[in-house]
Automatic annotation (TrEMBL):
N-terminal signal peptide: none
Organism: Herbidospora galbida
Pfam families for the chain: Esterase
Domain of life: Bacteria
UniProt-recorded name of the protein: Enterochelin esterase
The organism's taxonomic lineage, starting at the top: Bacteria, Bacillati, Actinomycetota, Actinomycetes, Streptosporangiales
């Protein structure tokens, strides 16, 4: 049986990282006299810094999209770069530099790139990450500084000079976006409902995992609907669990993690959320699933399990490849970023196996990472492809 207090090492994108049970806190590990995640991460810095120093003058390996690089930095030059701000992000050739000023025990960068920040030698308040990135000029990368996940203390969006323009979004919704409270297994669960403006006739709908993302997606979707590049679609966002022991989101979204909880959550969506939503807009009866990260795993598996309810699935950056035999009864829009290795491989696997099963598949990639920016950019074109059938 696995030791839930254990912390071990794995390698990703040339960097040694800590793996552990996210349901266990470092306080629990310390109380049991065990190595904490923070201690384990500190123990890896020296080895990772040696690797990064060797990478400073080296090109990316042919099979790599990103590698950390390092060289000693001048604190005064970095402070000048920051000026009066606490976060600076800039590029030099194919290297993206990130510097943050703050007090913390090993902050982490999340968003489009995800790395532990290192302290700058000779400064007690500066932290840095430098990354050599393939196709950096084409990339859009959200940068979040997280001293204590999921807390974000600073953020920037870095955009390469050759990156595609962002999709338009409305400054104020003409349609409706409302939050409601339903009950799932005796606990309140937030459900958001977006209905586009000026609907004439019946319209399809999509059920979005991690429904809190709908606030970011709705302005982009509505702009596409008003421009005529996306058909009118209602979106129901089912928020992830707000409380619970361990990692309740994984219990509900990953079928192999907790089969009973996944099945119960899927039944909640199909038997309660969808009938509830169908009464609140002119529903055509056509439903899709959508999600990102673990939510993509939920969406793709939900459509596979209930093709009688869902005609298509949108899965962006799925964290786990398919674990059961697949069928061809639904259309599937699947994608991953070049800078999110494991999620990109998983998306590739979903696309390959769905295609092999005879399903209709659109497989996309973007020059970026595990990033809500890119998920929002693919949401409208995915809905168009999933709902508009060619003659």
């Amino acid at each position: 049986m696995a030791d839930r207090l254990d912390v071990w090492t794995y390698e990703i994108d040339g960097e040694l990282e800590a793996a552990y049970d996210h349901a266990v806190t470092d306080d629990e590990r310390a109380a049991a006299g065990r190595e904490t995640v923070a201690q384990h991460l500190r123990s890896l810095v020296t080895a990772n810094k040696i690797r990064a120093a060797e990478n400073w003058s080296e090109k990316l390996p042919p099979d790599a999209e990103i590698r950390r690089v390092w060289t000693p930095r001048d604190p005064a030059a970095l402070r000048a770069r920051l000026d009066d701000d606490d976060l600076a992000v800039w590029s030099e050739d194919d290297v993206l530099h990130i510097v943050w000023r703050g007090s913390c025990e090993y902050p982490r960068i999340s968003g489009g790139v995800q790395f532990l920040m290192w302290p700058v030698d000779g400064a007690d308040d500066l932290w840095e990450v430098s990354l050599r990135i393939r196709r950096l000029d084409e990339s859009v990368i959200s940068v979040y500084v997280c001293p204590d996940a999921p807390t974000i203390v600073a953020e920037r969006e870095w955009r390469g000079k050759l990156a595609p323009p962002a999709l338009p979004e409305v400054s104020e919704l003409q349609g409706t976006l409302e939050e409601h409270r339903l009950t799932f297994l005796g606990e309140p669960r937030t459900v958001a409902l977006y209905v586009p403006p000026g609907t004439h006739g019946l319209i399809p709908a999509v059920c979005l995992a991690d429904g809190q993302m709908l606030a970011a997606f709705a302005p982009v979707v509505e702009a596409a609907i008003l421009a005529g590049t996306c058909p009118p679609v209602a979106v129901v966002g089912v928020f992830c669990a707000e409380s619970g022991s361990g990692d309740p989101r994984s219990h509900e979204y990953l079928p192999a993690h907790d089969p009973e909880r996944y099945a119960a959550h899927l039944a909640f969506v199909t038997d309660e959320v969808i009938p509830w939503a169908d009464e609140r807009f002119p529903a055509s009866g056509v439903w899709l699933t959508a999600g990102a990260s673990s939510g993509a795993v939920w969406a793709l598996n939900a459509a596979q399990r209930r093709p009688d309810v869902f005609s298509g699935a949108l899965g962006l950056s799925p964290g786990i490849p398919p674990e059961t035999e697949l069928h061809a009864l639904t259309r599937n829009y699947v994608g991953g970023g070049t800078l999110e290795s494991g999620f990109r491989w998983s998306a590739d696997d979903w696309a390959t196996k769905l295609s092999a099963a005879g399903a209709k598949v659109r497989h996309v990639e973007w020059a970026g990472g595990h990033d809500i920016y890119w998920w929002s950019q693919h949401f409208p074109p995915a809905l168009t492809w999933l709902t508009v059938r060619p003659e």
